[in-house]
Amino acid sequence: MNKYLYGAAVQGIQDFIFKTNELTHIVGASELVEQICTSAFDEFAKDGESIVRAAGNIKFVFNREEDCRKAVREFPQKVMSMAPGITISQAVVLADADFGKAVDKLEVLLKVQRNTPPRNVTLGLLGVKRANSTGLPVVKIDESIYKDEPTVQKECYQNRTKLCKKSFGDIVISKGAFAYDIKDITGKNDWIAVIHADGNGVGKIVQAVGKNKDIFQNFSLQLDMATSEAAQMAFNAVKDRFSDKKVIPIRPVVLSGDDMTVIIRGDLALDYTNAFIRAFEEKTREHLGNILKGQEVFASGEDCLTACAGIAFIKSSYPFYYGYQLAEELCSHAKKDTKAIYGATSNHLPPSCLLFHKVQDSFIINYDDIVKRELTAQGGLSFKAGPYYTSPQAGKKTVDDLFDASKLLVSENGDGIKSGIRNWISLRLEDENKAAQRRERMLQVFTDATVVKQLTCEEDKRCMAYDVLAYNTIMNQQTNE
Hints:
Layout: E1 4-11, H1 13-18, H2 23-36, H3 39-42, E2 48-54, E3 57-62, H4 65-82, E4 87-94, H5 99-114, E5 138-142, E6 145-148, H6 149-157, H7 162-168, E7 191-199, H8 202-209, H9 213-238, E8 250-256, E9 259-265, H10 269-295, E10 307-315, H11 320-342, E11 353-358, H12 367-374, E12 388-389, E13 397-398, H13 399-407, H14 414-430, H15 432-445, H16 449-455, H17 465-476
Parallel strand pairs: 10-11, 12-13
Antiparallel strand pairs: 1-3, 1-4, 2-3, 5-6, 7-9, 7-10, 8-9, 11-12
Helix pairs in contact: 2-6, 9-10, 13-17, 14-15, 15-16
């Protein structure tokens, strides 16, 4: 009897989650998305074997053709009804004795299907009343508030806490401890952060282990477990800094496979991300070490995975969607930088790093434009000092370098030095000579001239002053009671 390898790829997850600036709706969307690959598929997964069900990807071996046909026919409609705006690409191949070839065929077909997405179920007539916040057809009026179908569905899931428990661990806390309003996340100032982290080298591992059904199945399960435990360790690393608060100022958005996205209070973001990346290496070594060594995935015999992260520091009133978009871009730039250490085609595992940016205005541009507009000075000097690596790398800054440099501003003349360096940065972007004069003046005025020298150093054409001042503002600025 033939068996059938079914594959599904979920698309539009981030757009669905962040197509709102209401934290409660983001929470509901996150919880809803968490169900798609798990409980939502359970009714179709009764007779067969689950290979992958995480991070928006499903691979399932059906024992019977009729069961497979039912999944193909009904699962997309179920998902798009649960989460209007999300779409599903599907493909099916015979589960041959050569599992690797079957997976390769399936991936080719899935790529084709991604280019022919199904009709959006939220489409409506031109004359239909539409929600002010999204422009989608109104399906419900609640206390004079017009709501579309995605919003209604998100509200159905907004009080669920599965994703929080997965991210925070087995802690006994009430539902009231979870953030449902952006005010629950802000602290002494309005700076929050959107963090997006992604594992390195996962594609190469999938190529290596994906040809063996049992190893692939175990890898997927263990990777999801390692990522969840890494998030719990990151939570534990910062929880003492808000233990006196009634509400946890962290809200997980995505935690599946090797992906992690979270909204967090600004002053916690760098420590949380640094802890997550380090814990991700530790936990993937614990859960995946034998698989990585046994399959000889990497040239140097690494027994863990590394990760890159992007951190977008934004004001609490800033659109979450653009914050996430920037965080994802920053993560991509970090990945590009770390891959260049050994070369893009190298079989070495790239080291872990993170890249952050503090959004200064409301002008929406991509990160490449931000670098040109805000971070590129005269004479080839760049204020883009990152990415910051979690371990020493030749010619690269580390997270500890950033932390150490930030401590330099905690001095008797700290405020004056910050003001002087901020002015020097502005001059350095426009006039190299005037900036040099300003720097010389600071060296004469301040008794702790070593601080000025270190923060305005131009020797390697990458200056940390911009990042240090941004980090210092986020950590210390007081605008709220």
